[in-house]
Write a structure and sequence with these properties.
- It is built from seven helices and ten strands.
- By secondary structure, it is of the alpha+beta class.
- The chain starts with 10 loop residues before the first helix and ends with a helix.
């Protein structure tokens, strides 16, 4: 299963979850009052309890969404569903603790937890579904104008915080070079070679590069084979790829990647 879209890892979707989830719980419990919620919480202070629990969900969501935003995780859609379920369980633990301590129900904590999970899950599963559908629709409309021709495909580069930093036509890109904590992206703009320094890693760009036909030629380099003019070996036996753009360095080609690159060129 493919990795989840980078859209889900940006800051704005996390902020939407922080706002929408507690508000949706509050509105759902206040309007629909499902499964005897009035009798469970008590009619007199029902609105107060729902407000406090919505605040607990807000705090829990801030914690889990901050973790999701900052941790360098690669999730597919199935694992993302498990992550959301884990968030609901996490919220349920704290809402159950509030109910157990404040309402002093004649029930064991884990019995209260089961009821709390029922209310949180049934209310928030709708909100999670709407948010996920909205992000998928946004992704679809963002990519709907993409043309399948490789020469006009756009490459979207995100930094380590999943913020979009650079969009290039695949044909404009020359090569990518790894630095210590950054990568340098070399590309053509009006026939002039330009460089963009991105805070990311080569490993984070692997999937993007392979998807757009870039080839790894060295531990620290990805190269666009359509811009390679010739592979040349120097007097020390080191192979370099000469590019068709002026004032561009020769790219080293290691033995590990030479055969594959040579097959693509000849």
């Amino acid at each position: 299963m493919s990795h989840i879209s980078p859209v889900f890892r940006r800051f704005v979707p996390q902020l939407l979850h922080v706002i929408v989830l507690p508000f949706f719980y509050f509105a759902f419990m206040l309007i629909y009052r499902p499964f005897g919620a009035i009798s469970f919480f008590g009619a007199e202070w029902y609105g107060v309890h729902v407000t406090i629990i919505a605040s607990i969900i807000l705090i829990c969501t801030v914690m889990t969404r901050s973790l999701y935003y900052f941790l360098p995780m690669k999730l597919n859609y199935a694992l993302y569903i498990f992550w959301c379920l884990g968030e609901i369980i996490f919220m349920s633990f704290f809402t159950a603790l509030y109910i157990w301590l404040v309402l002093k129900k004649p029930l064991q904590y884990f019995e209260v937890l089961a009821v709390s999970f029922q209310y949180v899950f049934l209310s928030l599963v709708i909100a999670y579904s709407l948010l996920a559908l909205s992000l998928r629709l946004y992704e679809y409309h963002s990519n709907v104008l993409e043309v399948p021709d490789a020469s006009v495909q756009r490459m979207r580069f995100y930094d380590e915080k999943h913020n979009l930093k650079l969009v290039l036509l695949r044909q404009a890109l020359l090569y990518i070079c790894a630095e210590i904590n950054y990568v340098s992206i070399f590309y053509l703009d009006n026939d002039k070679v330009k460089t963009y320094v991105l805070r990311s890693s080569m490993k984070a760009l692997d999937e993007l590069c392979q998807e757009h036909g870039l080839v790894r030629c060295h531990r620290s380099f990805y190269v666009n084979p359509s811009h390679i003019k010739v592979l040349r070996k120097d007097k020390d036996g080191i192979v370099y790829a000469e590019m068709d753009a002026e004032d561009v360095r020769h790219i080293p080609v290691s033995k590990k990647f030479y055969d594959r690159l040579a097959e693509m060129l000849y």
